[in-house]
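Hey all, quick one. A colleague (J.T.) asked me to put the zinc ion job into the tracker so the inputs and the structure tokens live in one place instead of scattered across chat threads. No bug as far as I know, just bookkeeping. Sequence used:
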Amino acid sequence: VLPGPVLAIESSCDETACAILSSDGTCLAQRVVSQDGHADFGGVVPEIAARAHLALLPGLVRATLADAQLTANDIGFVASTTGPGLIGGLIVGSGFGKGLALALGKPFVAVNHVEAHALTARIPGLVPGGAPFPYLLLLVSGGHCQCIAVEGVGQYRKLGGTIDDAAGEAFDKVAKMLGLGWPGGPALEKLARDGNPKTIPLPRPLLGREGCDFSFSGLKTALSQKLAPFGQSPLPRQFAADLAASFQQAVADVVADRITHALRMMPDAGLLVCAGGVAANSVLRARLETVAEQHGIRFAAPPLKLCTDNAVMVGWAALETCQEAARRGLPQPDDTATRPRPRW
Ligand code: KG4
Ligand code: ZN
């Protein structure tokens, strides 16, 4: 197995992150910079993100090494996210990682971002009782929305995904309609606390439908129709809160139904893991816990800072990949020639 520590880089969206993990998965240091400069545009601007990664990475890597009280020469190998994600950021992060590895004469390992989210629950000590395979992963963020059967390292089956918006994207778009800024998920949840989820009827797209795909665009449209009568005038605060609560409830209902179906498709799952930024939503979390309980399985959501984009998960996925290769008697990975893959 490649000797650690591993220095990992994440740059697939608008978080620039670096982490250093020892061979056993202990995090020695980690830093995440959530880029500013996107909010004014109401979403991540790929060009701005790529330039920001380029500007941030050298200082971030230096600072993370200093936090871990290491120098670059102490690093055993380097890992970067090489997909899926925004191509500009992937080029910057993987180019930086490969250059560093080359300069140090150390191997480079390419990491799939979704795989990194999928394996996060297995970081030692994160989930009480651990996360042995197989388990069901619900990945819900601004860019991802899918149910994945996690059967082993490198063994994943996509059971379903969104046919339009990602869950976080829907939260962000609705929040924008309610004038809550971007990204609006957390603000929407806060507003919803003052609202009654039963006041405004909204559709539950795909509820009860075969499989575990998601759809959120109909819900978003229905909501915009409720806003239409107000035109440009400001929404009454209670109405906005009721809308936020009703929307959140509709999303929770849909997700609970979809996960119930996913668990039917994966009867051997011993654990339900929820990852991605939307996992921060307490209403959704509570519903998922209930679904897991009804199926007699455990529920786990990694701590929030490991649920959203970070480099610890990238380093951990690289370590698991090395261990799995060793278990199978395969050569250790060296992905210096791997290209970034935006749709990996
Ligand atoms: O994983 P993440 O940080 O970045 C990616 O999109 O990859 O997820 C961010 C998403 C945003 O859409 C944000 O609005 C949503 O997660 N989010 C939430 C909450 N906190 C973050 N959505 C609903 N409720 C929350 N409390
Ligand atoms: Zn992500």
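Adding what we noticed when we looked at it: The first strand starts at residue 6 and ends at 10. The pocket of KG4 (ligand 1) is lined by residues 13, 141-143, 168, 171-172, 183-186, 189, 276-278, 280-281, 308-309 (CB under 6 Å).
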